[in-house]
Amino acid sequence: MSRKIAIVASQTEVAQTAARRLNRRHATVPPQEADVIVALGGDGFMLQTLHATTDLDVPVYGMNCGTIGFLMNEYAEDDLMARLETAELEVINPLAMEAEGEDGRLHRALAINEVSLLRAGPQAAKLRISVDGKLRMEELVCDGALVATPAGSTAYNYSAHGPILPIGAEVLALTAMAAFRPRRWRGALLPKTARVRFEVLEHVKRPVMADADSRSAGPVRWVEVRSDPDIRHRLLFDPGHGLEERLTREQFV
Length: 253
Hints:
Layout: E1 5-9, H1 13-25, E2 36-41, H2 43-52, E3 60-64, H3 80-86, E4 88-92, E5 95-101, E6 106-111, E7 114-119, E8 125-131, E9 134-142, E10 144-148, H4 156-159, E11 171-177, E12 188-191, E13 195-201, E14 208-212, E15 215-227, E16 233-237, H5 243-250
Parallel strand pairs: 1-2, 2-3, 3-16
Antiparallel strand pairs: 4-16, 5-6, 5-15, 7-10, 7-14, 8-9, 8-13, 10-11, 11-12, 13-15, 14-15
């Protein structure tokens, strides 16, 4: 059965050129009318596309026109419809972030890769960490900390020396950046159902920024993070090149 496809592209010249070529070869529709969305760009653009199409419940097939392309398939103009027909589906749940800003306003956002807290001043951050309402760390002195999904575990989390998580793992990674006290604390693996709360200690003297997939909530007093099972992002990958294979391959590079 022929699928109705929408093509979206990042603003780079490479992606825009690819979009023009594919639009000449295929009849396309707006994303709201599509059975499949084809995203042209890099991983950053894929995250933008997934966030923008959360309410559509349409699978997204990415083709790499960017740099890394961990969430993308190889770009090729030929046989697009055949590739879509044989593509394998991966379903991921985002993180839901709730944070209180310095001005008392509440900020809510979704993150497919990670929610991160980063010091916003010259002094190290001081964070108090609770999991499911139970205090787990009275004081973490660090440059920052993050909670990452399995799909996002090879991104910022991996750069901060956090673990790579199998895509089917029902866990989240809690990873510290440059932990000073406890010395060299590397973080923890938590159940996917965990609700993690960070309280920013001395928040005026030691300001901390919170980000959900690099979308800033500004300086915050506290942040809560949990997986949201009610939201499902559907990604399509060429057979044998899904997220599970990519996550495994990353560990042997």
